[in-house]
Amino acid sequence: MATTNDLKNGMVLKLDGGQLWSVVEFQHVKPGKGGAFVRTKLKNVLSGKVVDKTFNAGTKVETATVDRRAMQFSYKDGTDFVFMDTQTYEQLPIDPKTVGEAANFLLEGFDATVAIHEGTPLFVELPASVELVIEYTEPGVQGDRSTGGTKPARLETGYEIGVPLFITTGEKIKVDTRSGEYLGRVNS
Prior knowledge:
Blueprint (H helix, E strand, L loop, with lengths): L1 E2 L8 E4 L3 E11 L7 E8 L5 E7 L3 E4 L3 E11 L2 E6 L5 E4 L1 H4 L11 E7 L2 E6 L3 E9 L12 E6 L4 E5 L7 E5 L5 E4 L3
């Protein structure tokens, strides 16, 4: 148990009859009149639904014990993604729904954080950015360098993003794993 004064981003709460909700953001508010309260944005760990919820300051909330483990993506087995615990070398298959958007940026050997609650994987967190090679993009035309346009490019994971017109097939780029945006070239 904790109180709303102890909330932190990433903390997982058990609310509404045992559902798990991750704290995305929170704000303590002390109005001029009346009692203080905490405004939160919560994300349902299983469904991904995001809701706004307000608690009175000091309200007791039940926290869930979530084990965050450093793991490495090993391979894909059918539809499941198999991760290896970097401490125990134990293999853990995770279904695609749990992996979610992270699947767009996963290559064998990539490190990730896997959140586990009572033996069940809840979600997979990647670093803020990853470096990937452009598998294919249309060639740029001379003179494209000065315009600010973008073109589609397929990454080595098969995911497609928009890149500046001067990027070519085979280049290594940095990609934001939260938004899927191009962040820049990687000089090799």
